[in-house]
Amino acid sequence: MTRTAVVTGANQGLGFALVRGLAARLAPEDLVLLTGRDAGRVAAAAARVAADPATRSRVEGRVLDVSDASAVARFAEPADIVLSNAIGPLDPDRPQAEQADVFLDVANSGTHAVLRSFGPVLRPGGRLLVVASSLGTLGHLPEPLRPRFDGVSLDDVEKAVENWRAAIHDGTAAAAGWPDWINVPSKVAQVAAVRAVAAERRDGDLANGTLVAAVCPGLVDTRASRPWFSDFSQAQPPDEAARKVLDLVFADVDPATYGELVRFGRVLPWRS
User: In sequence order, what are the residues at sequence separation of 6 or more whose Cβ sits closer than 8 angstroms to the Cβ of residue 249?
Assistant: First the structure.
């Protein structure tokens, strides 16, 4: 059967490497959709993958802004592999409060939109993975904030993110205990969103070999990560990080990984 894969935020960095890896592993009749917000970059990236000698499957570029939930809903069609990878820009030289809206619109609202729209059309035996981070475990938040993300619904996660956004704008986030680096609560919220969706689907998905999970690729040497870390001696090139993510995509489903945050094939405990 022909398979369809979708990767968001895929015109550069890890997303581009994920498309390359999928195109090399899938069959000639399969289709990989490389998506991003900029039509020119998307077209150029798709052409690069299509011209790669290692590419076996069909590759097509599609414009998709995941921060637009209605656009994601219109775009979503039955798929076998969905990798939610898009992330908003974050500049360490600017106040984070100034960047919160763009960042959260992509990283969190975008994650919610992908889960809501692609979850119902994911084919049996499919894979729906959200690229997150080891920062996404609950213990990275102060204890009073943890109940907002633990054992809650996707609606509750969305509400918690919007309340946090409002606190950033009205200057009360620090007093409420929110970490200064917005990437931390954002990643916790991403993993919480995956857990919320997975909790509702678990029995049916495991019965037909479907996997919904969050995945941590480890430190990846990309343009987005470079400004934030001084030591890249242990960082992976995007192709290597993508290979580890795709190993999970193409492996048989281990029930222990379902709905969890997985790094290099191992579950990172949610409440660590």
Answer: 22, 81, 83, 127, 129
CATH code (residue 240): 3.40.50.720
- Interhelix angle 110-118/183-207, nearest 10 degrees: 10
Which helix (H) or strand (E) segment holds residue 160: the answer is helix 154-170
Domain extent for 85 = 4-268
**CA 209 – CA 222 distance, rounded (Å):** 33
| Each residue's pLDDT tens digit, 133-181 | 999 999 999 999 999 999 999 999 999 999 999 999 999 999 999 999 9
Residues 6+ apart with CB under 8 A from 226: 232
What is the spatial distance between Cα 191 and Cα 189, in angstroms, rounded to a whole number?
5
- Residue 30 is predicted with a pLDDT of 98
Count structural domains, the chain: 1
**What DSSP letter does each residue of 184-253 carry, written as one string?**
HHHHHHHHHHHHHHHHHHHHHHHHTT-EEEEEE---B--TTTGGG-S--TTPBPHHHHHHHHHHHHHSPP
- In angstroms, the CA 4 to CA 8 distance is 13
pLDDT in tens, 9-30: 999 999 999 999 999 999 999 9
Sheet holding 79-84, edge to edge: 58-63, 31-36, 4-7, 79-84, 122-131, 211-216, 261-263, 266-268
| Encoded tokens for 125 | 């035996």
- Token code pair at residue 149: 């993300």
The answer to whether the pTM exceeds 0.85 is yes
